Amino acid sequence: xTSQLNAFTKTxxxxxxxxxxxxxxxxxxxxxxxGRHALALPDDLEVLxxxxxKPGEFxxxxxxxxxxxxxxxxxxxxxxxxFHVLQVSPEFSWGLAKNVQFNVQLFSSLxxxxxxxxxxxxxxxxxxxxxxxxxxxxxFFAGGMVEIGRxxxxxxxxxxxxxxTFLLGYRSGKWTVATNLEADFKVSGNGSxxxxxxxxxxxxxxxxxxxxxxxxxxxxxxELRDIGPLSQESQHLFAVVDFKHKGWSFNVGVGRGxxxxxxPWVLKAVFELxxxx
Length: 277
Prior knowledge:
With 277 residues, the protein is mainly β. 0% of the residues lie in helices and 52% in strands. The chain has no helices and 13 strands. It has strands spanning 58-67, 86-97, 100-110, 116-130, 139-150, 160-172, 175-188, 196-206, 211-223, 226-227, 235-245, 248-257, 265-275. Strands 1-2-3-4-5-6-7-8-9-11-12-13 form a twelve-stranded antiparallel beta barrel. The chain is globular and about 45 Å long.
């Protein structure tokens, strides 16, 4: 899944040094209101942008997250806690066509006792038919992704889940803004049949040719038939740094939970490695 600040962006095998000129920028105002108790970090803390493999190109990505503390209020859903659990999601991607990519994502975790498990996996088809000729060019981009698979027990108790994601973004000069609206639904299992909605937002500012900084927001909105209140849904805001050069990239961030139903502090990292260049 990210993604999603963005998300655990897609470059020379030479060594690099962080730019000393990185500066702090603006914030993102998240509104919260007041119903249903839900708690879950997204399956991938990454915001989808307009990055796609070229036809026949292969890449591998690793999305990782770690919750440093547990929510102050427990969820009324029967989900496994994320507190002190290192969640790692390798993802393998193949470019099928100019604007289409196929992904296979695996979910694994390592608990505080050092016990590792394989928690599930999913298949993804990503298409971005509207985007600039080059992924660094200015302009709008829009597309979508469909996913099906078995999610970790920290997210869902179903045997099989599906997800549809709509992505929209705009890049102008040094600024990039993007949003992902996701609808998760049960394919097989004992969970609710009503789709769950969630949103991801990224605001980035390029400080150098390879580095950018910004904010990423990840928030559950609730069931389609009963949206909100957001004050009782998982809500996180991350400060992030992105590096990108010739297909190699990383995104690292520190996230703060915005209410009692969210993990107060979360670390995230996304690394991507290209192959066959």
